[in-house]
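Long-time lurker, first post. I've been practising inverse folding by hand and with some scripts of my own, and I keep getting stuck on stretches where the structure tokens seem ambiguous. Below is the full token string for one chain I'm working on. Before anyone asks, I'm not after the true native sequence, just a reasonable design that respects the backbone. If someone could post their per-position residues I'd love to compare against what I wrote down in my notebook.
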């Protein structure tokens, strides 16, 4: 330990500066928390970035995790400093948590940079808390480790296992066709989310946990451990120990997040049947850390990867089952010939070596590469005059026969228009129609809400129709399913072709040939473009106005243009 203490840490610019007055100020006020002398004499100062909030149900247990991380930091000779950042919960916040992802990234970035921290532990859980804090940490670039909060235990309704999120998308169909009553709904409501943790389907929260593990930002096996399993708290404590070692080793986040690490995350996401939301978040993270990553990479690297994990919404089981079956380590071992096994992870070891001895305990949940649940499961990227910069679709959650489909558009200009008309008995729509939703992209909603998986008209549900092609510039929950084309770029609010679609127009979706085409003449298209009037911004003040004026399009990760890249860890001026 004596040798380690000779290292000059970033925090010493605060605690042992040349100007003794500044040192007095910075040390003295922290002493009101009982900090002893040795907290300021060369021990690594570790930030614990906590996304806990009572308003974020998925993260409500992270206060306990922070205490475990603190124990680990102290045991390893570090000094813990917990701090809060804006917490984002999908189920409560309006209009959408995605609107505030970039704000939380700013909060994280400036909290890390502006304080005497040598390393940081990110406590994450619900969908946007993982990418936002990672984005912020990337823009500072100090040693960083992620502790995912973990999924809930499996939901149980009567004799059925139900998945949070995925079950919710089935309610309208159940009430239309299965005599599902309000009493049934009330009972399912209290059975759906029965423990601490995030959604236990392979929704976006679980996808983000798998993303950070496959990127190498967590200790091996962290992603799938249920939130209430004692091994999750153990993982938090071990992460606290490890971040101190990372500071001594100067293992910064930029040394882990290489181009090869991002490729590993794309491959792993395909194999687990992860959310389409991975695309937008991974691109944003890459652009913060300075790695070249584009939309086509997800198709090129992931579309031929087999589906190895049988989890809802693409399969049958849930995250608790995934953990018992071996979790992500078992998947990474199966992918050993498809990933870059040499990529360094936060424990200082290559990802391939970390997982070389992993075992699978249930082949109903995790399939071998030689016998997958589906041959090709990655996210497909389609282009055409309706999506000049691309759009995404998740074939593993779609209906095969609809992946090549031509139909007449039924257009909803806003989400309010959709809600007002979708169940109108006189709406001219059938199972061959293509539902189109405009105005729900980054600028248009604002925030690119998870409304792309539009529920079908009740009159079609009663006929037994369970899926239709749906197209929008919005997103969908990772817990959702269906033949849903998302992230259309450019979005309708900035003049993308999606804004010009009219009810009755023919649209061709051809996923095998990666094509999305509005079938009107070029002359007609140009006429419509000239007649298009740009809508007013949805806010005239505050953060939302700033967001609408500076947000980039979906194919670039929907970050704010002035946040792309990083400022680093140096702060050249003091506060006194």
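-- Answer (accepted) --
I ran through it position by position. Result:
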């Amino acid at each position: 330990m004596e040798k380690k203490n000779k290292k000059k840490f970033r925090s010493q610019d605060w605690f042992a500066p040349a100007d003794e007055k500044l040192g007095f100020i910075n040390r003295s006020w922290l002493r009101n928390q009982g900090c002893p002398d040795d907290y300021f004499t060369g021990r690594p100062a570790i930030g614990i970035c906590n996304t806990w909030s009572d308003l974020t149900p998925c993260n409500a247990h992270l206060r306990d995790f922070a205490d475990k991380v603190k124990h680990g930091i102290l045991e390893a000779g570090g000094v813990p400093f917990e701090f809060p950042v804006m917490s984002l919960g999908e189920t409560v916040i309006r209009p959408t948590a995605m609107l505030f992802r970039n704000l939380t990234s700013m909060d994280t970035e400036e909290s890390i940079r502006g304080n005497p921290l040598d390393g940081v532990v990110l406590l994450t859980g619900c969908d946007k808390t993982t990418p936002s804090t990672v984005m912020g940490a990337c823009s500072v670039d100090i040693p960083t480790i992620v502790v995912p909060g973990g999924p809930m235990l499996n939901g149980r309704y009567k004799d059925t296992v139900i998945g949070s999120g995925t079950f919710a998308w089935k309610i309208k169909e159940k009430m239309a066709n299965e005599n599902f009553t309000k009493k049934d709904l009330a009972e399912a409501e209290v059975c759906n989310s029965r423990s601490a943790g995030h959604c236990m389907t392979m929704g976006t929260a679980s996808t983000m946990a798998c993303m950070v593990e496959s990127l190498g930002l967590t200790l091996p096996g962290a992603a799938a451990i249920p939130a209430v399993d004692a091994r999750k708290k153990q993982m938090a404590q071990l992460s606290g120990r490890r971040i101190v070692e990372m500071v001594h080793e100067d293992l910064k986040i930029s040394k882990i997040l290489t181009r090869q690490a991002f490729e590993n995350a794309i491959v792993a996401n395909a194999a687990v049947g992860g959310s389409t939301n991975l695309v937008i978040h991974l691109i944003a993270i890459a652009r913060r850390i300075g790695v070249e990553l584009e939309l086509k990479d997800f198709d090129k690297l992931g579309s031929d990867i087999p589906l190895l994990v049988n989890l809802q919404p693409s399969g049958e089981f849930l995250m608790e089952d995934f953990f018992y079956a071996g979790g992500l380590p078992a998947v990474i071992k199966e992918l050993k010939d498809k990933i870059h096994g040499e990529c360094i992870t936060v424990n200082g070891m290559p990802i391939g070596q970390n997982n070389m001895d992993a075992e699978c305990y249930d082949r109903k949940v995790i399939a071998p590469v030689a016998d997958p649940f589906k041959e090709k499961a990655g996210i497909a990227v389609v282009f055409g005059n309706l999506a000049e910069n691309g759009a995404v679709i998740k074939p593993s959650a779609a209906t095969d026969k609809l992946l090549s489909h031509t139909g007449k558009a039924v257009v909803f200009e806003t989400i309010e228009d959709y809600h007002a008309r979708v169940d109108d008995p006189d709406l001219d729509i059938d199972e061959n129609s293509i539902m189109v939703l405009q105005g729900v992209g980054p600028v248009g909603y604002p925030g690119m809400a998870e409304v792309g998986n539009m529920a079908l008209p009740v009159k079609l549900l009663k006929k037994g129709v369970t899926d239709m092609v749906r197209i929008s510039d919005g997103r969908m929950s990772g817990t959702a399913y269906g033949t849903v084309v998302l992230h259309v770029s450019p979005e309708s609010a900035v003049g993308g072709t999606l804004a010009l679609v009219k009810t009755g127009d023919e649209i061709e979706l051809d996923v095998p040939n990666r094509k999305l085409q509005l079938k009107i003449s070029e002359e007609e298209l140009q006429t419509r473009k000239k007649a298009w009037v740009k809508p007013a911004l949805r806010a005239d003040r505050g953060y939302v106005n700033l967001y609408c004026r500076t947000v980039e399009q979906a194919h670039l990760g929907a970050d704010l243009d002035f946040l792309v890249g990083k400022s680093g860890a140096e702060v050249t001026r003091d506060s006194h």
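A couple of notes from the structure itself: The longest strand covers residues 404-412. Residues 1-5 have pLDDT under 50 and may be disordered. Happy to go over any region you disagree with.
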